[in-house]
C-alpha cells in the first residue's frame, strides 16, 4: 500500500504510514474552495490595474516641517559681555570693578589702579566730604571709637570705645591695690594706647577703601593678649 501523502510503500495491513504517520482510515483532506473576491477588488480584477493604497503611512515624509521643530542654536555673538556682582567679562577679557571709585581693573590686579583700594574693599559705609573725615579723625584722637561711629562703622566704634572704657576702669581699680595692682594694670594701659594710636589712621584707611591696621581679627587678638597678660603679670606682681 502506498501512502497517498508521501507515496511511501507500507504493508497492506498498516493503518498509518510509517514515514509521515498519515492514517489510512481518514478520508483525504478536501481541497480548499476559493473564496469569493472582495467587492473592492472586482474592478481591478477586470481591468488588471491594482487599486492604489490610500492608507496613510506612518513613515511618509511630511511636506512641511513642523512649526515647533527645534531650531539650531545661534552661535554666540562676538564681543559678548557678562556681569556677576563686582566681576565682569567684556569682549573676551575678565576684570573687576572697584567698590570705592567704580573704575574697572584687570582680573590679575589685586588693588585698584586709580585709588589703590583692594579687590575686596567695599565702598565707604557713608558718603562723607573730606572735611567730615577730618572732623571724624579729630574726634577719634580725642575719644577712641567716636570717629568710627561718626563715619558709619558702629561695630568697630562700639568695640573700641567699650574696651577703652573697660580697661580704663580696670586700671583704676587695680591701681588702688598697691604695687601688685599697678603692675597688673600695665597690659591694659598698653591696650588702650594701641587702640588710641591706630584710630585716626584706620579712619584714613576706611576713607580710601583699604583695610584698617586694627581690623576685627587683630582687635580680637589684642583683647585676648591683654587678658592673658593681665593674668600673668598680676600673678607675678602678687608674688613680689
From TrEMBL:
What residue stretches are annotated with the RanBP2-type domain? Answer: 96-115
Query: Recorded GO terms, molecular function?
Result: zinc ion binding
Composition skew (Low complexity), residue ranges? 49-80
Region annotation (Disordered) maps to 29-80
Signal peptide stretch:
none
Q: Indicate the transmembrane segments per the record.
A: 158-176, 219-238
Ranges in coiled-coil conformation: none
From what superkingdom does this record's organism come? Bacteria
Ordered alphabetically, the record's keywords are:
Membrane, Metal-binding, Transmembrane, Transmembrane helix, Zinc, Zinc-finger
Q: What is the protein name given in its UniProt record?
A: RanBP2-type domain-containing protein
| Species of provenance | Euzebya pacifica
Amino acid at each position: 500500500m502506498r501512502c497517498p501523502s508521501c507515496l511511501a510503500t507500507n504493508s497492506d495491513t498498516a493503518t498509518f504510514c510509517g514515514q509521515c504517520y498519515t492514517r489510512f482510515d481518514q478520508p483525504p483532506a478536501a481541497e480548499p474552495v476559493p473564496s469569493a473576491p472582495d467587492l473592492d477588488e472586482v474592478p481591478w480584477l477586470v481591468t488588471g490595474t491594482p487599486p492604489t493604497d490610500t492608507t496613510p503611512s506612518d513613515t511618509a515624509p511630511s511636506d512641511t516641517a513642523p512649526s515647533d521643530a527645534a531650531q539650531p542654536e545661534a552661535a554666540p555673538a562676538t564681543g559678548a559681555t557678562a556681569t556677576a556682582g563686582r566681576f565682569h567679562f567684556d569682549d573676551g577679557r575678565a576684570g573687576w570693578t572697584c567698590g570705592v571709585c567704580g573704575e574697572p581693573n584687570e582680573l590679575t590686579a589685586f588693588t585698584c589702579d586709580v585709588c589703590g583700594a583692594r579687590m575686596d574693599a567695599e565702598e565707604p559705609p557713608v558718603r562723607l566730604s573730606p572735611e567730615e573725615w577730618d572732623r571724624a579723625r579729630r574726634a577719634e584722637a580725642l575719644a577712641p571709637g567716636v570717629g568710627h561711629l561718626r563715619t558709619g562703622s558702629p561695630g568697630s566704634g562700639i568695640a573700641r570705645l567699650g574696651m577703652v572704657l573697660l580697661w580704663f576702669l580696670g586700671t583704676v581699680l587695680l591701681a588702688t591695690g598697691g604695687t601688685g595692682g599697678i603692675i597688673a594694670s600695665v597690659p591694659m594701659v598698653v591696650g588702650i594706647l594701641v587702640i588710641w594710636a591706630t584710630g585716626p589712621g584706620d579712619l584714613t584707611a576706611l576713607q580710601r577703601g583699604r583695610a584698617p591696621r586694627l581690623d576685627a581679627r587683630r582687635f580680637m587678638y589684642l583683647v585676648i593678649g591683654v587678658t592673658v597678660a593681665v593674668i600673668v603679670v598680676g600673678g607675678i606682681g602678687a608674688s613680689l
